[in-house]
Amino acid sequence: xKLMFASDIHGSLPATExxxxxxxxxxxxxxxILGDVLNHGPRNALPEGYAPAQVAEKxxxxxxxxxxxxxxxxxxxxxxxxxxxxxxxxxxxxxENTRLFLTHGHLFGPENLPPLATGDVLVxxxxxxxxxxxxxxxxxxxxxxxxIPKGGHPPSYGLLDENLLSVIALNDQQVIAQVSINP
Length: 183
Prior knowledge:
Blueprint (H helix, E strand, L loop, with lengths): L1 E5 L6 H14 L3 E4 L18 H9 L5 E3 L7 H6 L8 E5 L4 E5 L17 E3 L7 E5 L2 E5 L13 E6 L2 E6 L5 E6 L3
Parallel strand pairs: 1-2, 2-3, 5-6, 6-8
Antiparallel strand pairs: 1-9, 4-5, 7-8, 9-10, 10-11
Enzyme class: hydrolase
Protein name: Phosphoesterase
GO molecular function: hydrolase activity; metal ion binding
């Protein structure tokens, strides 16, 4: 199974268009959105091409292929524009030998882990900083932000292909970080 991950879109239309193009090119079965879809939030500057209603329209074209969780900037008003659910604080994807625990990162995250078993993967956004690393017996994976990257990183997304989780730069597709999970 191939999965793509995007986080912290924050209403950026150009970033949404780029990530949807990468999604189609990747052949991934599902696009997992890790929150902060439409709203830029009061702590962030407006991202390039801020157009939340148009972002909703673009994403709605892929509604049947999106799994999403709620970020700290998402609300019921945002849900009114989207044709896929975004209000769950977390989701799980069960692979043959691995569980992916999907969350935005403001409720559960590296500093406040949910109950996870050896080999599970914590998949989160929120920090806008890419991570693909083994911490003890749990994999931590953050695809970064496609619209407002932080820490000097480029805009990025994530891809799970077979048992390899990669953070990939949105514009030039350079691999930023990788980690293997249980096959």
